[in-house]
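Data card: per-record layout.
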Amino acid sequence: MNNSDSFSGDSAPPATDAVGQAFETVIGTLNERQIRYALIGGLALLQHARTRTTEDVDIMLTAPQIALPGLFEALQARGCTIDLYKNLRELRDDGYTAIAFRGVIIDLMTPLVEAYRHVLDRAQPVRISNFDVRVATAEGLIVMKLMAMRPQDQADIRDLLLAQFGRLDLDYIRAEIDTFAPDDDPRRATFEDWVREFGETTRQSDAS
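The structure for this 208-residue chain is written out next.
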C-alpha cells in the first residue's frame, strides 16, 4: 500500500529554531549535492503521527565514498561542526556518525542491513519548509523501531499504528520482520498484539 496521502504535506518541523535551521542546512546540502537519503527519526515521525519534541535530525543516506568528503566539506561551509577524517571513517566503518549545527546533533547513518536499505528505497518526497524532502514511510519507521524496540520506539510504533491504521502495508512490515527476527522473537508477538489492539480501536471508532 502506498501511504503518501498520510504525509502532512507543506509542514515545517515543529521544533526549536535551532533544530529547524539544522534541518534546513542538512536537507539543503543533500539536495544540492544529489545525495540519496531519507529523513528518519523524530522529524519523520511528525509527518505521520503525533507532534512530539525532538532535539536532533536523523538522516539515512547512501553515496559513493568519493562523494562523501565533498558532502562533509559543504556541510562545514554552512556552519556544521565537522571532524572530516573522523566522520568519514565512522560512516565508512561503523555506518554511523554524528555532526552538529549550533548545538543540534545531526545523526547520519548508512543502510548496513537489508531492512534499512528497503526503508531508503521506499522513502517518499514531501514538501517541508520549502524543501523537497525524502521521508521514510510510516511502515519504514515502524520496521526501524521494531529493530531497536527501546521504550521510546515502542511508544512511537503505537502512535504510528493509531494514526495510520487502515493505511499501513502490514504485509510489508511482517516481511521485513522476517529478515531480522527469528520465529520466537518476542517482537513478533508484541507487534501482532498491537495490530489487534489498534484494529479493534479503529473498528470501534468507525462504528461510533
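Known properties of this structure: The chain has a mean pLDDT of 90. DSSP finds nine helices and seven strands in the chain.

See the next section for split statistics.
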